Amino acid sequence: MNIDDLKYFIKVFENENLTKSAKELFITQQALSQKISKLEAEIGVKLFERNSRGVSPTEFAEYFYPEAKGLKKYFDDFKSEVYRKAEKEKKKLKIGFSPGTLQVLNAQDIIENSRQELGIEIEISEFTDVDCEKNVLNNNLDLAITVNPQNSDDFNFKSLYHDNFAVVVKKSDSLAKEDELKLVDIKNRKLILLDETFRMQTVLEREFKKADFEPEVYSRCNHDLDAAYEFVSLNKGVFVFVDSLIYLERYPDLSKIPIKDLESKWEIGIITKKEANIGPNVKKFINFYEAENDL
Questions:
Q1: pLDDT reading at 89 higher than 70
Q2: Is Cytoplasm found in the keyword set (predicted)?
Q3: Residue range(s) in the chain whose domain bears CATH number 1.10.10.10
Q4: What is the CATH number that goes with domain 3-84?
Q5: Is 136:155 a contact under the CB 8 Å cutoff?
Q6: CA dihedral sign, ordered 105, 158, 260, 240
């Protein structure tokens, strides 16, 4: 017994006529009669009495009808809901972003505008750089706005913005007198860095090697930048971070000094999975973003 069997039974029960029911179901009367006979044989009970005027439901059919009708309605509602959700899923775009990226790019406004202009349901979530990459590879995200992963084997990367690094020092520090620094100027200082879930650390490690020194790290912080600033205030070390993301309004005892001799930059952009079929919503969003920023 399947849902089509119930559909045929319900139609015949309501019309009490095989010819009329067959026309409404767009099948032949012979085919409909065979389906009803097959259903009766399967359940072992007669559903209709044939007569000159058509068919009459049996007592068992009177019991069976409301149950079949309810089950058919449940199935139809379920089917409609599945298709509705599937259609909604097609219009959904899952975007990840790493800390600081939306702020620098002013992407929050663009994402909100794209919701309205493109008619796409956009779901945004914050992750570390490394977790952005993992979620794109695992198809949990359609794209991510994050730091360049430097991995062209797994990702497509579209650059959107880059910035230099800077050092946060205490104003009483002798380094605070300088307008700019070279990396070797902090060679003998304890450093406060971000942890390894941030790709900027990979960039800095590469620059440390070029400068031929192994940094002495006092602490590796996560999202809590206040902890890094507090360590500097306590003379525990100097903090190396992205220039445009350093905000010292609440720390009047600290200064920011740019580092000018680095080849590498903090580069952020859009990553998508390499060799994956880029869906229409991803293309729409990227095109919209480029148009909004004249890229």
A1: no
A2: no
A3: 3-84
A4: 1.10.10.10
A5: yes
A6: positive
Which amino acid is located at 201 in the chain? Q
**Residue owning tokens 């869906």:** 279
Class of domain 91-161+268-292: alpha beta
- Name the H helices within the chain: 3-15, 18-25, 29-43, 59-90, 101-105, 107-118, 129-137, 200-210, 225-233, 280-292
Q: Of how many residues is the chain composed?
A: 295
* Cβ contacts of 213 within 8 Å, gap of 6 or more: 184, 187
The CA-based dihedral angle spanning residues 125, 129, 133, 135, taken in that order and rounded to the nearest 10 degrees: -30
CATH architecture of the domain formed by 165-264: 3-Layer(aba) Sandwich (3.40)
Nearest Cα to 186, choosing from 263, 248, 259? Answer: 259
Are 120 and 149 in contact by the 8 Å Cβ rule? The answer is: no
Span 150-200, pLDDT tens digits: 899 999 999 999 999 999 999 999 999 999 999 999 999 999 999 989 999
pLDDT cut 70: percent of the chain above it: 98
Give the span between the Cα atoms of 113 and 96, in whole angstroms.
17
pTM value surpassing 0.85 = no
